[in-house]
Amino acid sequence: ARAGAGTTAFIDLSAENGETYYYRVAAVYADSLESLAAGPVAATPEAPALLAIESVQALAGQPVEIPITLENAHPVAGLRFTLQFEPPVPLTAPAAILGARVPPNWIVTLAADSGGSALTIVALSPQLSAIPPGKGEVLRLVAAIPVDDPLKAALRLRNVVLSAPDGVAFPTRVIDGQLAIEVKVADLRIGTGPPIQPGDTGTVTIFMDNPEPVLAFRLVVKTDAAALRVIRVDGLPRLPPDAHVAFTDLGAGAVQIIVSSFSQSAIAAGAGAIVSLTYQVADTAAEGLVRLVLDEVALTDRRGRTLRQATVAGHFPVGSIVAVFTPGASDAQPGRTVTVPLNLANRVALCGFRFEVRHDPQMLAFLSLETAVRLPGDYGLSVHEIEPGLLQVEYDGPQPIAVGDGPLLSLVFSLAGSVPWDTSLAVVVSRVDAEGCPSGPVFALGQAGRVTIGAAPAQPVHFLTDRESAGGIHFITAQAVTVGGRYLEQGDEVAVIDTSGGASAGVVVMGVGVVREDGSVDIPARLGFAAGRGLPAGAASGLGRAMVFLAWDRQADQESRPGAEARYVLGAGLWGENNGLTIIDLLQLPALAAAPVSRLPDQLVVEQNVPNPFSDTTVIRFGLPAEQQVRVAVYDLLGRELVALHDGITAGGYHQVTWDGTDGNGRPARKGMWFYQVRTPEGAITRKMLLLR
What we know:
Elements: E1 20-29, E2 32-42, E3 49-53, E4 56-59, E5 64-72, E6 78-86, E7 92-98, E8 107-112, E9 118-124, E10 134-144, E11 151-163, E12 169-170, E13 172-175, E14 177-182, E15 187-190, E16 201-210, E17 216-222, E18 228-235, E19 243-251, E20 254-261, E21 270-281, E22 288-300, E23 306-307, E24 314-318, E25 323-327, E26 330-332, E27 337-346, E28 350-358, E29 364-371, E30 381-387, E31 390-395, E32 404-415, E33 423-436, E34 440-442, E35 444-446, E36 448-453, E37 473-483, E38 486-487, E39 493-498, E40 508-514, E41 521-526, E42 547-553, E43 558-560, E44 565-570, E45 573-574, E46 605-606, E47 618-624, E48 628-635, E49 641-650, E50 653-659, E51 672-680, E52 683-691
Parallel strand pairs: 3-13, 4-14, 25-35, 26-36
Antiparallel strand pairs: 1-2, 3-5, 5-10, 6-9, 6-11, 7-10, 8-9, 11-12, 11-14, 15-16, 16-21, 17-20, 17-22, 18-21, 19-20, 22-23, 22-24, 25-27, 27-32, 28-31, 28-33, 29-32, 30-31, 33-34, 33-36, 37-38, 37-41, 37-44, 39-40, 39-42, 42-43, 44-45, 46-47, 47-50, 48-49, 48-51, 51-52
């Protein structure tokens, strides 16, 4: 029977598998009581599910990721739990990412208390889809925890409720975890060395970027023990004069380096090389790239804190490089196709090769692969898109590639229309395998190339003024121009033309301008026209009604017809209507003055940066309701300013700035989460962005 309103559900959690139970159901109708005995019920309670939280170690100032795993024997249609932090921690911008086990139509909500002691998470599907039985990660919490000192806290799962598709909750066990936050003091990286032959010696340098003085440090350099061994470590001028540098061979390709000062002198805040390593390459070392990895880094500052920091590895080639694949530089325009040539320089004939090409999938979409004269036909040539932004190119043809240096292939991409002007995109060739003829595998390398988007055109190229006229030039300014409901963008052209047939060609271009970055355009228009059609002074004129607006959309690479729609202003007066152009006497403009229709927002608008995440450059777009002071800056997770992208009086309307992932001194910023803020006298809006390297 269908349960009616007011029906109470009864769940017997004490029932055990394999046992038979009898239940009596009673229903009350007004003053009478009706009872009947229920039949035998085989009670089979749900097997307990296991919700676990993994212990996490992270660095202050970087995103902290906390994985939540679920082991369930039956489908789970919803989950709710509270994550408690003991002691409380300062969470900033918490977010939740659903795992691969969770159906794509699930939604998740988070609610944090004001004291940072707890975070409540609810996840479910409006379509009632369920997490299938299994084991693995279902949720990953991401947040910043800005602290100045190391922090340890217990992670406890409380108030856990897991529900089945029928809405019934079943028992759940939990496993708690630990959170450890360490404070960053410095970035360390190891340099890249030049090619070296087996049996020779070489050097690499370790660099440190430390915003605070470092009293001492310890680190371990790990490499391939069969390829080389470190024979000496030398301090460089950044170290204090009395610094002591010691290194110990730990075996298995690992070397420990300790730097300290007898007088407790610290390495001053700054950036640069600190030590150099001299190494001996084994006579039997195989050709290829030898990696040098920094590990177990511990630094001590003047307050006695010991801290760790993830580092950047280096490498150098051992042996003779006989082939190098290099993408060429290419110029492009947003919204167009771009061809990236791939050059091959090889000192031996090649019977085959395989390499990977990485690019930004949000900005470049792969279209096709074209061959050049150096490749003997396309038989045996293939390209596979392994994932967005990753291609694998392979050649195993019947004819060898002769020794030489020149174009081999071309990669054809479609460039997104949202790519900002005056930027560049990386195209990187890596993981190269090459087969020599008849020598077998040979040592080959891949390199990086660039797709460059130049500055937006400043002069029109599609509309040209046909002739001079008797009138003077007056600048007409349009704050916004639309074509088919879409706003024109930087680099598009807008023309004012006369279609009355006054010229022999039937069309006279009275003026043309190029749309600027903020969407506005100035059109230097001549208002005198031809003889006998000038504007009469002192009176309104109906002449010129055959004039219309045209636009050239650079992204579509075509002219728009019947024309663009815009409101134009000339000085303080109106000079146009929405769907056409009616010329009026300039002397009447003050009496006909009207506010232009434009794209001015009602309040400050800050859009999400594009692309996001990004690895090279990203564009931040914002809108202002009026002219005012604006400051656009990038901040780290502790609220410290990294770089100011714009600071000054800015006109009303939409604007954009570009960040290339560097600080105010041009140094690359670390990968991870950053904040950008647009501040005006009326307020500020802050958003998150993720930098990849």
